[in-house]
Amino acid sequence: MAIDFKVNTKVDGLDKFKKYIEYVSNIAKLSNDKKFQEFLQKKFLNTVNFISQIYLPDNAMKSEYIKNNQIRPMDNGFIIYNNTAIDTDSAGYGGKFSIALAFEYGTGIIGQNNPKVGAWQYNVKGHTDGWWYPSNEKDTNPIKFVTKDGLTLAWTKGFEGYEIYRYSKEEIEKNLPYWVKEYTGNNGGVGR
Q1: CA separation for the pair 99, 21 (Å, rounded)
Q2: Secondary structure letter of residue 190 according to DSSP
Q3: Neighbouring residues of 109: CB distance < 8 A, sequence distance ≥ 6
Q4: pTM score > 0.85 for this model?
């Protein structure tokens, strides 16, 4: 005994379903489309720069930070990162201090009281009041002095994190479907 099924492919619902499957298939092909990847890289980087412009205070490090938002292509996509750092030898810390991580999570007493992530060390030296950091004439901090060696220092208690990458991620997730439509001409096709 055999069971036979008859399917009428002219049924409106099945035709719509077939078009949807073709649309999904075309969208999946975009992951291997180099031009689409480059298109997304530009959109993502522009978003991170825009969020940085909005959330970071106007100070000497803002333009340096934005300039250092970068993209590194990977086999299966790309990474957006920022490697802005300053030399901290003159302040007695040794090595480099990541401005990128500090801007994301915060620093010092103020950052510690408004934590953005559990694993970040907000107050490495255990300051109870604040500390001096290397500065320059572009720094808008009004509390400064120049050492006998000519080094400009400014006083801080730290700052709350600006969460640039968290806000960028939220903005990217919100806009990604629109960018796919923009790239595909709003019809689900691949490429331009």
Answers
A1: 46
A2: S
A3: 122, 123, 127, 128, 129, 130, 157, 158
A4: no
Q: For residues 65 and 56, give the distance between their C-alpha atoms in angstroms, rounded to a whole number.
A: 9
Taking the CA atoms of the chain, what radius of gyration do you get in angstroms?
A: 25
Query: E-strand spans in the chain?
Result: 69-74, 77-82, 85-87, 96-98, 106-107, 131-134, 144-146, 152-156, 158-160
Phi/psi for 41 (5° steps) reads: -55, -45
Instruction: Report CA-CA distances (Å) from 154 to 132, 135, 139.
Output: 5, 6, 8
pLDDT of residue 118: 66
Between 139 and 82, whose confidence is greater?
82
Q: What's the token pair of residue 78? A: 């790309």
Structure tokens at 154: 């400014």
Residue 124 scores a pLDDT above 90: no
Joined together, the tokens standing for residue 25 give: 């298939």
One-letter identity of residue 46: N
Q: Given a cut of 50, is residue 190 above it in pLDDT?
A: no
pLDDT (average), residues 7-30:
67
Partners of residue 154 on adjacent β-strands: 133, 144
Q: Which two tokens stand for residue 103?
A: 């801007």
Mean pLDDT of 135-157: 86
The dihedrals phi and psi of 127, each to the nearest 5 degrees, come to -60, 140
